[in-house]
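A sample copied in:

***
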Amino acid sequence: YVTAATTLSAGNDSLFLFDISTWGSVQYLGSVDNNTASTKGLSAIAAAGNYAYATNPFGANFKTCKPGANCAQLQIFTTTNPAAIPSPVNFLIPTSSPPYVLGSGGQAAGQTIFYKDGYLYLGLTKTASGPEFNIIDVRDPLHPKWIGGYSIGNTINQIYVRGGFAYVASDDKSRELI
């Protein structure tokens, strides 16, 4: 799986699937555009089974927008048939109920992601309110559920989960590793 953070024009593909199972051979399998109305692509990706989970860096007004390609921090692609990838499931972290993740102008956009055992650990750019670190249950990938989060107060650059701990790298100069 390879993603493009930006494309030259709206409608260009931003998620690409390749088969690299044979050493020295790269076979293109298929691609899709995550947002046909924008040049914003995808900022990070994690894959498990027949699904690709990607962070959407499109900076919407998350208080007023409706979930869609221009209003989702997370997009879930079904990759069963790489030659014909359907439109993604667009997931917006709740804004009108807890955790009240809000932002506009680049705030609260998808930044980084980590997958482990049916859960996604989603890092956002600095929010206007609500947690930048979010845990999402994707045991049913087509119906993701927000289950918890933690406010960092800054953009999350990377997440790694091991042994019951989440290691979070942020752009906070006094707390680069949390």
